[in-house]
Structure formats: C-alpha cells, structure tokens
Amino acid sequence: MIKQICTVALIGRPNVGKSTILNNILDFNLAIVTNQAQTTRDQIRGIYNDEKYQIIFVDTPGIHKAEYLISEKLNEKSYSALQEVDLVLFVCPADQEIGKGDQYIIKRINDLNIQNKIAVISKIDLIDDRSELNKKAKKLKEIGFKRILGVGNNLKQTYSDLIEEIKPFCYESEALYEEDQYGDITLRFMAKEIIREAAIENLYEEIPHSIAVEINEFIEPDEDAFPYKIDATIYVKKESQKAIVIGKSGSMIKKISVLSRQKMINTFQHKVNLVIKVKVDDNWVNNEQKIKKLGY
C-alpha cells in the first residue's frame, strides 16, 4: 500500500513527556509512563495511521548526565535516532525552564545541522499563565526553532494539531507497517516493561533507578484454554534493595506481581501465569555483557 510516510524522533531530557505524547497520539499505552526520570530505556516505535499517512514515531530514552555505562548506552540510543529519521521533535516541558540539559541537546541537534525539527512544549495543561508559554516559545525561536507547538494531557486537539504539523514532512512510499499495527515491540518486551513500570511506581521512593527486568521464559498458549506462562527476574544492586522489593512477608513483590499480571491480562486479552523472582547484581549498570543480556 502506498502512503505518505515520515519517521519522527522524540528527543529530550528524562521525564519531559515524550512517552505521554506517543501514547496520546496512538490512543494506546504503548510506552510505559511513570513520574520517575529515565523510565524509557529503549527506542520504541509507535505507528500512527490514517487513510493517507503513516507516521512512525521513535520514542527515545531521556538524555541525561551519564553516571554509569548503562546511562552512556541509553544516551547513545537517543543520539543515534537524530540521524536516522526524517524529522526531530525536541520536547521540553511547560513547567520547567530551558536549562543546561536542554541547551546541550539543542546544541547537538544544531551541530548536526538538522533542518527538519519542531520544538514541542509538553504539559501545557499545567500552566495557567499563557504569557509564560509565550516566553518559552520566544526563547525556543531564538535558539533555532521555526516551528513550535504545545501539547497537554487531555487536550486532544493539541495532538491532532501536531500530526497536521508533521504531515508536510512526509513523502510517498510503500507503507512500512500494517494498518492495524500500533508499534514494533513484541509481547515479551511488553511484559518486561509492564513489570518494570509496576516496580517503579511502587518503589520510586525507596529504590533508585537501578532496577532491571529480565524475562527468563515466555511461553505463548497454543490453545485458548491455556494461559501465557511468564517467568521474570527483577535485578537490584544491593541486598538491602532486594529486601525492599520483596517486602515484609513478600507483600511488595506480591503487589508488583498482581498489578503486572492484571495489566498483562488486559493488554494481551488472555489469561496469564506470572512468576517474578528478585536477584542482586551489584554491577549490572557498568557491565557491558550484562547490559546487553538485559536488552539495553
């Protein structure tokens, strides 16, 4: 099928709303979203389709100061997307100043002489004073953006406006994905992310962002009567963190398991048997082999 095609990268600091933008455009929770920074660890492709257009969005990890090897790897994933797409959306939130982290990313975009770029001010629903938004837009124009849009949660028209702004960058080509495909991720990957999301949401005050999840076994049912069988491991850096993740009498890991299983059932539209273990790996964030093994 011939369509108008465009590949678009969502770039910005951690926790600026890139994944929320993707999920709102697709009207589907493809990427996990939490209040914690550095939630996204992979390039996730989400596919928007209408009668004439197919727009492939590449959600990237938030670019941040690298303290560990895992951080360097995540930043590399984000920067690599800049030269692999037709259009870059630089995302910065309405409720924060344009700081050094933003300016560093913008400099990288400008150094690569990327002309196809749009600045997207996210979370505009959090700002009542429109003059503040105008100031931010003016600053973004001063640092090289000709096109600037705002989007906000529950402001559906803003996402429709963003799609319309992207369409002039599209070109005629054979469609890359099927009409009914939301993304390029597998159910196995979704299971991993669902567990990580549940862990982050319930442990963000106690555990730093050093949790990783590995799917050890993922068996799809060969008949409707049988459930998915999923065996997973949550990795932490310290024994004390393991105790927190397990919780008193296993209460926390039970809570994470129940929440994860229920979301998988809703997402997969099928019964799920889920077993989650917790292990300590004190240096996984700096070990290249282990980082690769965990899929990063």
What does this structure look like?
It contains 9 helices and 10 strands. Helices cover 36% and strands 23% of the residues. The strands form 2 sheets. Strands 1, 2, 3, 4, 5, 6 and 7 form a 7-stranded mixed sheet that branches. Strands 8-9-10 form a 3-stranded mixed sheet. The protein is α/β, with parallel strands linked by helices. The longest helix has 18 residues. It is globular and about 55 Å long. β4, α3 and β5 form a beta-alpha-beta unit. Keywords: Cell membrane, Cytoplasm, GTP-binding, Membrane, Nucleotide-binding, Ribosome biogenesis, RNA-binding, rRNA-binding. Monomer.
List keywords for this structure.
about 35% helix; globular; alpha/beta; single chain; 3-stranded mixed β-sheet; about 300 residues; 10 strands
Could you state the order of secondary-structure elements as H and E? Answer: EHEEHEHEHEHEHEEHHEH
From the alpha-carbon coordinates, what is the Rg to the nearest angstrom? 20 Å
Structural class: alpha/beta
Overall shape: globular
Helicity, as a percent range:
25-40%
Strand content: 15-25%
Instruction: Compute the average pLDDT.
Output: 88
The major β-sheet equals: 7 strands, mixed
Spans with pLDDT under 50 lasting ≥5 residues? none
The tally of strands reads: 10
Distance separating the two termini: 33 Å
Question: Counting H and I runs of at least 4 residues, what is the number of helices?
Answer: 9
Protein name: GTPase Era
Region (G1): 12-19
Subunit structure: Monomer.
Region (G2): 38-42
